[in-house]
Design goal:
The protein is mainly α. Helices cover about 80% and strands about 0% of the residues.
């Protein structure tokens, strides 16, 4: 069992350290609202992941994946939500807001939950990869929970670290970056959310 857990953690860390919508959300939140907000965003993201831990352990994830309508609906919802995040990530003066709104703790966490629960890649991970690390004589709910929580922990460490690092990086280089470059960089999070959403929709169109 120890060997299974070790290799699973390696795979989980690799996935967690790969930039995606969840990490971008944590980074963007941290840079806009501070590192504490970024950590809260990471907590929300992992709560979303934990929901997949629950439905996988209970066997419901297989039913979702087996239903083309439900699975496609999840993918479309995820892409549309990324487009919404792309809009929200735009510099505030461009969306007719005088000041950046202060995000509440609950709003930060709920957005993090939504970002990951509408991410079909997480569902695919729990359906295809996670069972491979469960010993044949331990295929029970307890083992799924242990591995799921390990995946949760790896994700939280990666996303919260990215949030803290990006916050520090922003203030370290804020004074040395030219104004025009700084203004351009404000659009990067929005562009990344937009590109991921478009890529997701294009892949769906190709599959259909």
């Amino acid at each position: 069992m120890a060997n299974y857990l070790f290799y699973f953690i390696l795979v989980s860390l690799t996935m967690a350290l790969t930039p995606g919508p969840a990490m971008m959300y944590c980074i963007n939140t941290s840079m806009d609202h501070g590192k504490r907000a970024g950590i809260l965003a990471a907590m929300g993201v992992e709560l979303g992941t934990f929901m997949y831990v629950l439905i996988t352990a209970l066997g419901l994830a297989t039913l979702i994946l087996a239903s083309p309508v439900i699975y496609s609906g999840l993918r479309i919802a995820g892409a549309l939500y990324l487009l919404y995040l792309a809009y929200k990530a735009l510099p505030q003066e461009k969306v007719l807001t005088a000041k950046k709104a202060i995000k509440s703790k609950s709003s930060t966490v709920l957005t993090g939950i939504t970002v990951n629960i509408t991410n079909p890649k997480i569902l695919l991970f729990f359906i295809t990869l996670l069972p491979q690390f469960v010993p044949t004589d331990h295929k029970n709910i307890k083992m799924f929970f242990i591995l799921g929580l390990a995946f949760n922990l790896c994700g939280f460490l990666a996303n919260s670290s990215a949030a803290i690092f990006s916050h520090r990086l922003k203030y370290k280089f804020a004074q040395s970056i030219p104004t025009k470059t700084s203004q351009f960089m404000q659009y990067i999070p929005s562009a990344i959310f937009f590109l991921i959403a478009v890529l997701s929709l294009v892949l769906m169109a190709i599959e259909w």
